[in-house]
Protein 1
Amino acid sequence: MVNRIHSLGGYIHEYQKSVANPEAFWAQQAENFYWKKRWDKTLEWNFQGPEIKWFLNGKLNLTENIFEKNLYTHGDQEAIIWEPNDTNEETRTLTYAELYAEVNKFANTLKRLGVEKGDRVAIYMPMVPELAISLLACARIGAVHSVIFAGFSANALAERINDSSCKVLLTADGGFRGEKITPLKEIADEALESCASIETVVVLKRTGSDVNMHVGRDIWWHKAVDGQSGDCPATEMDSEDELFILYTSGSTGKPKGIVHTTGGYMVYSAYTFKNVFQYSAGDVYFCTADIGWITGHSYIVYGPLLNGAKTLMFEGIPTWPDAGRFWDIVDKYQVNQFYTAPTAIRSLLAKGNDYLDGKHLASLKVLGTVGEPINEEAWHWYHDHVGKNKCPIVDTWWQTETGGVMISPIAGVTPTKPSFATMPLPGIQPIIVDGEGKELTGNSVEGNLCIKYPWPGIARTLWGDHERFKETYFSTFDNFYFTGDGAKRDEDGYYRILGRVDDVINVSGHRLGTAEIENAINEHPLVNESAVVAYPHDIKGQGIYAFVVCGELSTGGEEGIRKSIKQGVTKIIGPIARPDLVQLVPGLPKTRSGKIMRRILRKVAEGDATNLGDTTTLLDEDVVEKIIQGAQVEVKV
Ligand code: WTA
């Protein structure tokens, strides 16, 4: 079992040890796992290549560390507790032994479908136990899973499937979300019109919706699994064999396929889960994320299951049938650790405290947040009303690229401060650098957040594009991993994350590239060009504000065009990327060399044009005046 820190002194001691000799520190953590063959060398790295390898020549299978290693001790214990969307439907639980059998059966199914080690399997599924089973079945046979969030559109799904030439697609007839049904199979069918690499589609029956089954390509999940053995030998993997790809947004248009490998990710997700949440045997842990994002990968599936934890999976949404749903679930299953996003907290806070009436929430020991900065008001509400002043809040900062939590309090150990992610976990060496890449030492500094030494969970590359990996993370500042976030270290040495400093925006905890949204807007037949920026939004944290230049207006007039632009983005990317505000403008503020001055657009979107900074390089100052006049928010001038 993974080592656990129990006290502040213990944390300081571990941290110092981990910095003095990171290799020895991580080797000690890795010793807690079952390896078919121990590694020869703990770490080889350089950030110029970049090339990062952990636990070199170690041989293992991650699923053996979830199952074989633990079945004798807790085979009968619940592994996955599943709460369906509809409160009238029955809960499902899978013990470790049951989950093991299901994973093996599905692993055998994949094998029968011709999936081999290294093949990519695309997963586009609702939040049901079969989703977790798919990930683990891939890991069992060394297939590389690529989960695509079930809110993405056909176009976005196809782009991701094609980028890594997936061989098989796992999906469902539909997914329940509150009162709605997402027609997953229908969307997948549309996507597959342009995906030549997919040979087979396995379709889970979930909603009972009518779907078209393509003969020779599509098979029902239950039929495919039927008769498969519950035994499947674990494929031997090298530490550095790929475990999964997960697409995330960057500052340029195309999504990036973040690649995580087996050994390092296993050690890191397990270590951070146990320490950050202070999970103890028997606890019930509930993370509200979707497995379509990294939080779900690391902290619904891998981290908890590697620790033999009981992990709760919820299919529905926080506001259905009403805004008390999370709290009902907490009481129903006596949840001990609860992990969610600030946007969910803000939306529940906005609904008022009535939804907390009659909820006990007495089982809660630890509360967590992830995905975006948490404002103080939301932090205090969470702390006082949900945690009843007795639960530490772990504000966990990390990224798809980091594999697991990087800067965060250790629950009950690190003294917290509202809206501060506080201190780095052992093994993590954050630094703050100025615009030139000079490290700002000491306390009370603010700048770009970088990490100066590798940790086991760091992404190894971008699928099929190592050059872009280097360019994005290792070229801005020499020899450091650049996170894309701004941060401040306060007088106590505590870190506060200030948000993205690049062209990535964070809407309801979802990462979106402004270029990606602009590309989608520009597909509109009447649009000449566009620029997208974030603006402060009470619930979502950031909202999407699009400035759009149209050649002419259609018969629907301005209102019609705004609407069709929003619909277009929903169709091309998905509802999460739908602009909140669209302003039709006569032109964009550009420099003489043709560069869009986004700074000006951000100021307008923030509603404060009192200090636009240096505008002398602007090609046409009139444009700015017109933009301010037609702004979709009130602007101070
Ligand atoms: C932001 C999510 C402030 C940050 C795990 C980061 C945060 C991006 C926090 C990664 C936090 C994540 N406080 N900001 N506690 N956690 N972020 O890849 O901007 O979906 O770079 O990973 O979310 O988003 P991603």
Protein 2
Amino acid sequence: MNSRPLDWRVLPDADAVAEAATRIIAAAAVDAIGQRGAFRLVLAGGRTPEAAYRLLAHQGADWDLWEFYFGDERCLPADHAERNSWMAEGAIWSQVPLNKRKVHPIPAELGAEVAAEHYARIVAAAAPFDLVLLGVGEDGHTASLFPGQPLNSEALTVAVHEAPKPPPDRVSLGLGALQSSRYLLVLATGAGKREALGRWQAGEELPIARVCHGQRVTVLLDEAANPGA
Ligand code: 6PG
């Protein structure tokens, strides 16, 4: 299905995945800053990305040249503990000397439609992103693009309702933004991910497969998530 082979890397456990992700992100930052003077990084929600952010925060970097965006957000108050931005605030944004004007959370507290429209303007100004981190759900969703919901190939952002994973209202980057990015880094750990990864490898058109189709992609997974184990 993919016109480019995906780069699948199986690592022993979730800690090793977080460490490898940290190394890839740091190297991408050096590369992007060297070539373009800025590093535009899209964060993912989820447990494994959070572990990687905590590791990253302990590294030295040209933090004032990093720009942070988000792949999706839950329509909850801005300071809600289940917001992806709240997780990033605790794991990295509050831990390093950032230029706060370069931190771009999705304003999902405004409601899905308003926030999606607002964020589309931010994405249009920032794209192409240098590196997009993505998680994978047990059902093959990624960001907040869920199976069974229509995928518009042009959309920069999507207002999502009735998401099967709570909360039902969300905002996600769309295929248009994700597929124009320079590099996608997918993180998947734990036995719960094995079936979805197997379906993706078998060529099923899951959202994660649609997003990664034809792109430059590395998938970091642990042994527990490995469908080939
Ligand atoms: C969300 C996340 C979601 C997540 C995957 C994997 O808002 O729910 O952005 O897309 O990345 O569900 O999450 P885990 O790594 O925690 O399994």
